[in-house]
């Protein structure tokens, strides 16, 4: 096992050492797949039904300015469920410039809303220490003390997605705070709607049907936020902000499902379209 070297620059305040935040630890997502839908980039966002199985994978780049003698585990945790048992190790020790590959196997929560799968890395010996923000020199891992990665707020996670890094409290006698590599996969959890429950909202029409190259969305007064196009089997082919015209020329012939969502990720209309 590598020896963990700590460089501390700080001031003694009320018996606690406060570290200067010159450390760099940055996690950046590269490609993410959830339930057959793949997105590239650092801020993936997916829509999943309540209670649905969530399977997939991700690749994430890591950058730091730490000595290579540091052991830096990479862990993942959903921010729902059991924080002490639902997390998993992605890698035992990641290095500067490395790309790590991880898998996802979870069950979506039963309550609608916005949730995250959080990735975090820090100079510790175990993933449990990283995700509980427990310093390596403490005798045991401490959960539920107010600084678990599980407990990061939505605003903190959105900041982490943008920057790949976050300052988190360590709440012990040696370190007041530490720089973590943090990013997250955003999930919008919605209530499932059967194809047989197609919304008949009269103010919205989707045409032509059948369609060859484009579909048009006529919207008189409903607040449409984004559009998804799926195969009849449920695979998401496209997820984009609302547009009055959408190019479907690249999709295979057959039935497609068009879902329209409002700003709260509620489905406001579903149509079946025949692609010719």
Question: Can you describe this structure in just a few lines?
Answer:
This protein is 6% helix and 46% strand.
Describe the structure.
The protein has 276 residues and is mainly beta. The chain folds into two domains: 10-190, no CATH class; 195-275, Sandwich (Immunoglobulin-like). Helix content is 6%, strand content 46%. The protein is built from two helices and 19 strands. The strands form five sheets. Strands 5, 7, 8, 10, 11 and 12 form a six-stranded mixed beta sheet that branches. The longest helix has 10 residues, at 154-163. Residues 1-20 have low confidence and may be disordered.
Helical content band: under 10%
Please state the average pLDDT score: 85
How many angstroms separate the termini? Answer: 60 Å
Structural domain count: 2
What is the β-strand count?
19
Given as residue ranges, the uncertain stretches (5+ residues, pLDDT < 50) are 1-20
How large, in whole angstroms, is the Cα Rg? 22 Å
Portion in beta strands: over 45%
Q: Please outline the major beta sheet.
A: 6 strands, mixed
What structural class do you assign from the helix and strand content?
mainly beta
What's the SSE pattern? Answer: EEEEEEEEEEHHEEEEEEEEE
Count of alpha/pi helices: 2
What spatial form do the alpha-carbon principal axes imply? elongated
């Amino acid at each position: 096992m590598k020896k963990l070297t700590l460089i501390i620059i700080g001031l003694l305040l009320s018996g606690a050492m406060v570290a200067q935040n010159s450390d760099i630890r940055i996690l950046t997502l590269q490609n993410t797949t959830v339930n057959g839908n793949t997105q590239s980039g650092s801020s993936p966002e997916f829509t999943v039904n309540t209670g649905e199985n969530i399977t997939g994978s991700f690749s994430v780049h890591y950058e730091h300015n730490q000595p290579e003698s540091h052991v830096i585990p990479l862990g993942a945790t959903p921010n729902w469920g059991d924080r002490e048992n639902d997390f998993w190790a992605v890698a035992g020790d990641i290095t500067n410039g490395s790309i790590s590959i991880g898998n996802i196997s979870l069950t979506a929560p039963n309550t609608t809303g916005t949730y995250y799968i959080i990735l975090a890395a820090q100079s510790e010996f175990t993933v449990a220490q990283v995700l509980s923000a427990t310093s390596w020199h403490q005798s045991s891992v401490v959960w539920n003390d107010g600084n678990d990665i599980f407990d990061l707020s939505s605003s903190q996670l959105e900041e982490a997605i943008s920057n790949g890094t976050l300052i988190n409290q360590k709440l012990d006698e040696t370190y007041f705070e530490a720089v973590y590599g943090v990013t997250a996969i955003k999930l919008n959890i919605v209530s499932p709607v059967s194809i047989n429950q197609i919304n008949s909202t009269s103010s919205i029409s989707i045409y032509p049907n059948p369609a060859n190259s484009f579909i048009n969305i006529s919207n008189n007064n409903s607040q449409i936020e984004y559009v998804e196009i799926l195969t009849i089997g449920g695979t998401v082919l496209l997820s984009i902000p609302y547009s009055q015209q959408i190019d479907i020329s690249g999709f295979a012939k057959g039935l497609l499902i068009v879902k329209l969502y409002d700003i709260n990720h509620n489905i406001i209309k579903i149509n079946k379209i025949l692609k010719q």
